[in-house]
Design a protein that fits this description.
Elements (H helix, E strand, L loop, with lengths): L1 E6 L5 E5 L4 H10 L7 E4 L5 H12 L4 E4 L3 E4 L8 E2 L1 H4 L9 H8 L1 E5 L12 H9 L3 E5 L2 E5 L7 E3 L5 H12 L4 E5 L5 H12 L3 E3 L6 E4 L8 E3 L4 H14 L2 E5 L7 H10 L1 E6 L2 E6 L10 E2 L11 H9 L4 E5 L8 H8 L3 E5 L2 E5 L8 E3 L3 H13 L3 E5 L2 H6 L3 H6 L4 E6 L3
Parallel strand pairs: 2-15, 3-14, 6-7, 10-11, 18-19, 22-23
Antiparallel strand pairs: 1-23, 1-24, 3-5, 4-5, 7-9, 8-9, 11-13, 12-13, 15-17, 16-17, 19-21, 20-21
Helix pairs in contact: 1-2, 1-7, 4-6, 5-6, 6-7, 8-10, 8-12, 10-12, 11-12
The structure holds uridine-diphosphate-N-acetylglucosamine (UD1).
């Protein structure tokens, strides 16, 4: 197991290239199951979850290959197989996104139940009840979701909560279903829009993907295409915070701007300056204005993303005043709080809110990463802390950030990757 050893206190200055989006790429790769042809994805981030997805596609009968420069090529399936084994699903919850495509193509699927994870129970009941409305039947057998159907048919589906994964799973299934599917209270995240655009390039008939009400007219067959994955808005937001927390100045190339509107708004409210330029987004602090705490409430897009909650908390730890962070999406997404406190932060937790009082400085210490974005917040805090911070269990970080220490070291950070003896 690897750990990161961070010598903090250096302002980061320079430019960083934002990679392709993990959360956009994973559903796109699963959508390849729907397509009776070769598909190529470019700008794919070099992450463990991507390699796991390619492995899963292989097991499902869609032979794929990944190379960091070329991206992912998924060749036409000779024969699809219905089983997504637990060994893969347990390492990557997004594997459950093969359920809708398998049912649509094969009329059956056997997908391991993803189970809970560090940030909460994360059930898939909304995925299943929506697919049932389209004609699928499910049983739970030995920890596996067993799904069967004849050809899926269109349906009117109202999500009780605008679930991102649920919307993706059902949109993919509906692309090949018979007749029209209408998804109400659907998620509107940019990754949903990206998936709809990709499916349209393959011949799908989808409208309204950015409106919360998605109309999908099923077609009998989808054809292949080449698709470039959008830049990662969460990686970009994380590096914006890296500039702010170290008092540095970073030019973020290939940085999405519109998709980060709420995050940028909050960082500006805290006192950071974010400027779009032809080369990228320039992120820095205002020399004449110290950062101050703000209140943050996570909500579905276009609200403040839960995937940026831990990072903005790290920034608030060293800002003036106090602020309240309310986590509305996942019930257990404050695992980073106790670790930030170990570095000297002043944070009080009560249910799904955290009150952060800014302190003058953080001091390096050994800390433990518990999930992907929690790990990012600990790296950010370590970059600003005095002395040495050791972040253990960074395999979480490697699932979502491509070459993070190389990117940060290139702009002045002092981070080493070491083998952890524990
Ligand atoms: C996706 C993202 C994740 C992000 C999240 C919210 C990927 C691979 N992951 O996760 O990074 O944090 O969106 O923006 O893109 N829920 C149910 N029943 C369901 C489905 C969801 O109760 O059937 C609940 C979940 O437990 C959670 C909330 O709804 O509390 C949001 O989940 P959802 O939007 O589905 O998130 P994911 O797709 O898992």
């Amino acid at each position: 197991m690897d750990k990161l050893v961070i010598e903090g206190g250096v302002p980061l200055v320079g430019s960083i290239e934002i990679s392709g989006s993990k959360n956009a790429a994973l559903p796109l790769l699963m959508a390849a199951i729907l397509i009776d042809d070769e598909v190529t994805f470019t700008s794919v981030p070099d992450l463990r979850d991507i390699r796991t997805s390619v492995m899963l596609l292989d097991l499902l009968g869609c032979p794929g290959s990944f190379a960091p420069e070329q991206g992912v090529v998924v060749r036409r399936a000779a024969e699809l197989r219905p089983e997504a084994p637990y060994e893969l699903v347990k390492t990557m919850r997004a594997s459950v996104l093969c359920l809708g495509p398998l049912l649509a193509r094969l009329g059956q699927a056997r997908v391991a139940m993803p189970g809970g994870c560090a940030i909460g129970a994360r059930p898939v009941d909304l995925h299943l009840s929506a697919l049932e409305k389209m004609g699928a039947r499910f049983e739970l057998e030995d920890g596996y979701i067993l799904g069967r159907c004849r050809r899926l048919h269109g349906a009117r589906i109202h999500f009780d909560f605008p679930t991102v994964g649920g919307t993706e799973n059902v949109m993919m299934a509906a692309a090949l279903a018979e007749g029209e599917t209408v998804l109400e209270n659907a998620a509107r995240e940019p990754e949903i829009v990206e998936l709809a655009q990709f499916l349209r390039s393959c011949g799908a008939r989808i409208e309204g993907e950015d409106s919360g009400i998605i109309h999908i007219q099923g077609v009998p067959l989808l054809h292949g295409c080449t698709h470039a994955v959008m830049p990662d808005r969460i990686e970009a937001g994380t590096f914006m915070v890296a500039a702010g927390i170290t008092g540095g100045e970073l030019l973020l190339r290939n940085c999405p701007w519109d998709e980060l509107e709420t995050v940028i708004g909050k960082l500006e409210q805290m006192g950071m300056s974010l400027t779009p330029t032809p080369e990228g987004v320039l992120a820095r602090c205002n020399p004449d204005r110290p950062l101050s705490c703000v209140d943050v409430v996570t909500r579905p897009y276009p609200g403040f993303p839960t995937d940026m909650q831990a990072q903005i908390m790290a920034l608030m730890c060293l800002a003036e005043g106090s602020g309240i962070i309310t986590e509305n999406i996942f019930e257990n997404r404050f695992m980073h709080v106790q670790e930030l406190v170990r570095l000297g932060a002043d944070i009080r937790l009560s249910g799904h809110t955290a009150v952060v009082r800014g302190v003058r400085r953080l001091n390096g210490a050994p800390v433990m990463a518990s999930d992907l974005r929690a790990s990012a917040s600990l790296v950010l805090a370590g970059l600003a802390a005095r002395g040495t911070t050791t972040v253990q269990r960074i395999y979480h970080l490697d699932r979502g950030y491509s070459r993070i220490e190389a990117k940060l070291n290139a702009v002045g950070a002092r981070i080493r990757r070491e083998k952890d003896e524990d």
